[in-house]
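hey all, quick one before standup. I had two proteins in the batch that finished overnight and I want to keep them in one place so we stop losing track of which output belongs to which input. First protein below, input sequence then structure tokens straight from the run.
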Amino acid sequence: MTLVIGPDDPADPEWAEAASLPEVSALVRAGRTVLVTLPEDETEAIAAAAAYAWAGAGVFRTSHPATSHPATSHPATSHRATSHSVRQALDMTEALLGRRPPALTRRGLA
């Protein structure tokens, strides 16, 4: 399970902060819960979130406040869109890794 937090949300003292993919991988292998801070640019944040999640990071700090219910909020501002987009990328990565069921399945697309 992954967690998206905002810039002002407190970090758990048990979390280890990482700044690179090799560092994330090493900390995950050591059994640590890894916190990464994502870039401010939305496109970069989405890509980084997916890559860090694939490497095993579990906590993602965005530069904007996280939305509490991204599926029901209306992303009228970029900070909400960023948090929602990051959450979608994390959910997709978790599904690809087999950690959660996909949001939608299609059968018989021949």
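OK second protein, same deal, sequence then tokens:
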Amino acid sequence: MRPSPTGSGESVDVQINMISADRLKSLSSVEKVALILEDVKRGQVVILENGLDPFEEARLIESTMTQIGEVFSGIEIQSYPHEAKKSWLGRLGKKDSRRMTVIGPADRMKTVRCEKDMISALIS
């Protein structure tokens, strides 16, 4: 916990929701976007065991852009980089290349560093 940004001395709690790949599989793309945006708009950080596919990520960004205003400042999203594939044959055996993703309110979460196996984020 960090001190309140208002300087009032109160600590600010941050709720982190970790969503399993199994739960995500049971949701439609629209439901995934709605679940994530609902949590992030409440100031929570969402960690997805398996990230969104490119279409879902685009829908999330699109939905976010339509809702930005005085109360909601948008999202910060960071995923582990995808591993480079050497050939098309190597891609055939891999079913899902999505990797863990961290999503949070843009005004509370800042990505400090992202490497192939670690994401560091500052949450205030």
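Flagging for whoever picks this up: The beta strands are 2-3, 11-12, 16-19, 45-48, 75-79, 101-105, 109-115, 118-123. The first strand starts at residue 2 and ends at 3.
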